[in-house]
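Dear Dr. K.,

Following up on our conversation at the group meeting, I've run the structure prediction for Carbohydrate kinase from Arthrobacter wenxiniae. I'm pasting the input sequence below exactly as I used it, so you can double-check it against your construct before we proceed with anything downstream. Let me know if the numbering doesn't match what you have in your notebook.
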Amino acid sequence: MVVGEALIDIVHTPHESTEHPGGSPANVAYGLARLGVSTTLLTAIARDPRGQMIHRHLADAGVRLMPESWSLAKTSTATATITPDGSASYVFDTTWQLAPTEDLPTPLLLHTGSIAAFLDPGASTLRALLGRLHGSCRISYDPNIRPSLLGSQAEARSVFEDTAALSDVVKLSREDAVWLYPAAGPHETITTILGLGAELVVVTDGAAGAILATREHRITVPAAPTCVVDTIGAGDSYTAALVAGLLDTRPGTLPPLALASLGQMAATAAAITVSRRGAQPPTAAELNLPENRASVPAVG
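The predicted C-alpha cells came back this morning:
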C-alpha cells in the first residue's frame, strides 16, 4: 500500500518543455509494478486530460487505480526546471485529499511519503491510517521534503517525527536530512530516527552512495556508476527497489549482508533511472528479478 499524491510533472529544460506523470508515491507504485510487484494505487486525481494521462501511464505498468482516486476537480501539477547539470527545482500546484480509509484491508507493506504526509486535509487522513495499521504491517516512509509546500521547519520536523514514529522503514535523502536537522550530521540524524522506533533508516547522498542502518548494523553502499541525464524520479526509483527488496525479508532480520543486497539493488535502480529522461524506473528484467512477485496494494 503506497499512500500519497499522483500529479503531472511539467518539465522545462534549456531546449524544450514536456509533461509526464509523476508524484513521488505514484512513481513508487509505478516502480514497484515495473519490478514485478502486483500493485494497487489509491490517489487523488481529476477526470481531466492530465488525470487520464496518469491513469494510462499507471495502467501501462500494470498498476490498478482504485475508483476512489477520481476525487479532484483539477489534477495537481509540479513544474520542474532542469539545469544543464541535470538537477531540478520545483513549483507545485497541488491539492491533496484522501478518500476515507477505514475499510481498507491490512496490506503486507504500506509505503507513503512526500506531499501526502504534510499537506492537509489528506495528511491527517493518512496519519489516522498509519496509526490504525501500525504494528499490523510493515510501514515504509520517504519524506521527500518539498520546502515550498511546508510551513516552518520546526512544524515540518514535528510532522516528520510523528510519521517516522509510526514507520518501520524511513528513507530520506541527504538534502532531506540536512533540512530537517541542519545542525546534525547524517549518522546523528540516523540515530535520532532509529530512536523514534524505525527498524531501518536509509540516507541517500547521490553519487556518494547511501547509508543503511539498523540498531545493530550500519553500512555504506556506494552509488552505481552511470551517466546522469535527468535526476527526476531517481529517489522514487531507489525507494521502489528498496521496498521490493524488503518484501523478501522478515521484520527484524536485516544483517549486514541483507542491508548490502538491499542497498545495491536500490542503487542500481536509481542509476538506471537517471541515465534516461523522465521518471522511467527499471523493469524486473533490468535488475535480474523474477516477475509476478508478492502483491503490495499501493495507496498513494
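Two things stood out to me. The first strand starts at residue 2 and ends at 3. The radius of gyration is 17 Å.

Best regards,
J.T.
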